[in-house]
Amino acid sequence: MANTMLASAPVANEQSLDSQDGLSQTLQQTPFTHPSAASHDPPPVSLTSEQETKYNSVLNTVSSWTTIANTSAAKAPTSPITDAERMWLTRECLLRYLRASKWSVPDAIRRLLETLTWRREWGLIEHTVDYISIENETGKQLILGYDIDARPCLYLNPSKQNTEKGPRQLQHLVFMLERTIDLMGPGQETLALLINFQQMSSGQSPSIAQGRQTMNILQNHYPERLGRACVINIPWFFWVFYKTISPFIDPTTKQKLKFNEPISLHVPPEQLLKTHGGEVEFLYKHDVYWPALNQLAGERKKELEERWVKGGKRVGESEVYLKGGDEKSIGESKVDTVDEVTEKIQEMQTTEQTTQQPLETH
Questions:
Q1: I want to staple 319 with a disulfide (CB 3.0 to 4.6 A). Which of 92, 131, 173, 276 is the partner?
Q2: Where are the beta strands (DSSP E) in the chain?
Q3: What CA–CA distances, in Å, run from 14 to 18, 110, 283, 293, 296?
């Protein structure tokens, strides 16, 4: 999948850099388009028959949605579900929410609906490239390269903070998460977060409220999206902050955090910044990187939308197909009818009731 799209190729703009030994080095200024040959594809996930039945139950419910609440307020007005929202409801998306809900069908359905409302209320469409641009003028966040598991890498560099605390800082993070997802290859569902606290002062750290809001967004509206998070050059005040927000981080997420480990253990050196232990000489120029990133992400998103239309605009479409992988559209595969799914659910419920009945004693 990811390696079928290979070549550690960057987007157009590179620049020659003379090193101290007189040899010419390539100066990277734009994102890499694909993982390197050192990365490997994520293995396909197989479902049990029970999990497949639960998935089909969620699929049937979300396929029937015709309207979505515009805000999370009680009795909020609704409006028709859009094509973009239906396209977001992929097979893998529904499965991510099921896994995050410990395979509880009602919980997964509730959370999916809450996220659709949140995406409207948050204003993802309104947060345009131009609106977010000022937040990234110093390169405090970068999407660059892929880790050893072909996850796109999102760098956070807090020392390059250039704006006052406010809503747009968190909107910037969400914008970059969305672009990172755009750059995921076929079969890839997670990202690598690389955080470098070098030269960061305590005044540049996020507030506790910002930290809690960030965790709420990541865990509730981007579940199962974090593959690993590498944190390096950790200052003492980070541990105070981490101790405060730690109770709000779920155990699964905590297991993915790597503190002060060499990032080169997780990212191929040829796609890792030199400042983080890799080989990539990088120069951030906002007028070069920013349009290149958004052009690349825009092209990937346009291709995905075209495939979704070609596949019949189906809820529950395969992300592997949408990302240009080697799977067919679900429209070309057998899909259970509503009656078939209902029958499977009834069989599962009957089995559960039977196993829960107490044994007769004599």
A1: 92
A2: 14-18, 24-28, 67-69, 78-80, 141-146, 152-156, 191-196, 226-232, 257-259, 281-282
A3: 13, 47, 10, 14, 15
At residue 289, the pLDDT reads 98
Which of the 8 DSSP states describes residue 32? Answer: B
Q: How far apart are CA 263 and CA 151, in angstroms?
A: 14
Residue showing tokens 């997802």: 181
Strand duo 141-146 + 78-80: pairing: unpaired
For the record, the structure tokens of 71 come out as 């805000």
Three-state DSSP class for residue 141: strand
With left for phi above 0 and alpha for psi between -120 and 50, is residue 312 left, alpha or beta? left
Task: For residue 162, count CB atoms less than 10 angstroms from its CB and return exposed for 0-12, middle for 13-18, buried for 19 or more.
Answer: exposed
Residues 259, 287 contacting (CB under 8 angstroms): no
| Model pLDDT for residues 54-67, shown as the tens digit of each residue | 999 999 999 999 99
State residue 24's pLDDT score.
43
CA-based end-to-end distance of the chain = 59
Q: Which of 109, 52, 41, 2 is nearest to 341 (CA)?
A: 52
CA atoms within 13 A on the CB side of 75: 0
Tokens of 35: 């993982």
Q: How far apart are CA 51 and CA 66, in angstroms?
A: 25
Torsion 84-217-59-188 (CA) sign: positive
Residue with tokens 């992988």: 325
How many other β-carbons are positioned within 10 Å of the β-carbon of residue 108?
Answer: 26
Q: Mapping DSSP to helix (H, G, I), strand (E, B) and coil, where does residue 100 land? A: helix
